């Protein structure tokens, strides 16, 4: 961490469109906000299981709100998230364990590729 700069750690899983929004905003403004950004890939499915939580998209009223909220935030922050109810089921059904293991391996061996690789997974999950 550089003098006078704050370290911001982003724990994320590419299953989360909210993580993508946060990721892009932090990448975009890190120099303006004078922060050192550290990406921390984390498997959200494991966290959910260990804590007994359900993904918000699996709860009908939350899923309905998330659709509107993510579309609004994607437009505001100019992140190309394209999301529908079917996407929730598709992505949650696919799971991200393999993707997150790969992303973690890249973080450990080739960290300079972590940012573009993570972005590519989000694009494939949430923008195509």
Describe this structure in words.
This protein is mainly alpha-helical and 128 residues long. The chain has six helices and two strands. The protein has helices at 17-29, 44-51, 60-77, 85-94, 97-109, 114-126; strands at 6-12, 35-41. The chain has a two-stranded parallel ribbon with strand order 1-2. Helix 1 (17-29) packs parallel to helix 3 (60-77) and helix 5 runs antiparallel to helix 6 (114-126). The protein is globular. The termini are far apart. The model has no long low-confidence stretch (mean pLDDT 92).
What key phrases describe this protein's structure?
128 residues; mainly alpha; two-stranded parallel sheet; 2 strands; globular
Largest beta-sheet details: 2 strands, parallel
Strand content: 5-15%
Sequence stretches where pLDDT stays below 50 over 5 or more residues? none
Give the number of helices: 6
Question: Strand arrangement, largest sheet?
Answer: 1-2
Any idea what the shape is?
Answer: globular
- Mean pLDDT, all residues: 92
Summarize the structure.
With 128 residues, the chain is mainly α. 59% of the residues lie in helices and 11% in strands. The chain has a two-stranded parallel ribbon.
Please describe the topology of this protein.
Layout: E1 6-12, H1 17-29, E2 35-41, H2 44-51, H3 60-77, H4 85-94, H5 97-109, H6 114-126
Parallel strand pairs: 1-2
